Amino acid sequence: MAVLERSFTLGRNMGTPFPLVRNIRSIAFRSGSFIDSLIINGMQFGGGGGQLSKTIEIDPGDYISRLIINSGDVVDYISLETNDGQKMSVGGDGGRSSVLEGKVTGFSGMTGYFQGGGPLVICRLTVWIETAQHEPK
Predict the structure, then answer these.
(1) How far apart are CA 17 and CA 45, in angstroms?
(2) pTM (2 d.p.)
(3) Coil, strand or helix: which one is 42?
(4) Where are the beta strands (DSSP E) in 1-137?
(5) Cα-flanking dihedrals φ and ψ of residue 115, to 5°?
(6) What is the pLDDT of residues 75-128, one digit of tens each?
(7) Number of neighbouring beta carbons within 10 Å of residue 99
(8) DSSP code at position 60
(9) What are the Cα distances from residue 135, in Å, to 97, 104, 130?
(10) Helix ranges (DSSP H) in 6-53
(11) Which residues pair with 43 in a beta bridge?
């Protein structure tokens, strides 16, 4: 069985890019009606609005295994689960829902000001995921 890494991009192509971050050891968010910022390994990408979530610590060998992301013009909502059963949900109820399953290996994206003058939020999120690929016999 081979491992295939794929990326899934959600949200709108606008704003300032932030780099691909891999080796996720901790993750938290700031959110209200939208995802204001993503905090990976202590590095914050996005604005300072909304409420700070709890931080999920991810031990070596563990990983984010499932994401539900609602997005439209911005990333509205994220629910995540790790392979060891930790769970967290943040954000509002807007956008269309996408379910991603597999071993999350990284995040990148874009931040921008909502509707031109609103708060700085996550406008676009790219998720890198490893999935098992069965080889033909």
Answers:
(1) 9
(2) 0.91
(3) coil
(4) 2-11, 16-22, 26-31, 35-40, 43-46, 51-52, 56-57, 64-71, 75-82, 87-91, 96-101, 103-113, 120-133
(5) 50, 35
(6) 999 999 999 999 999 999 999 999 999 999 999 999 998 776 678 899 999 999
(7) 9
(8) T
(9) 30, 21, 15
(10) none
(11) 40
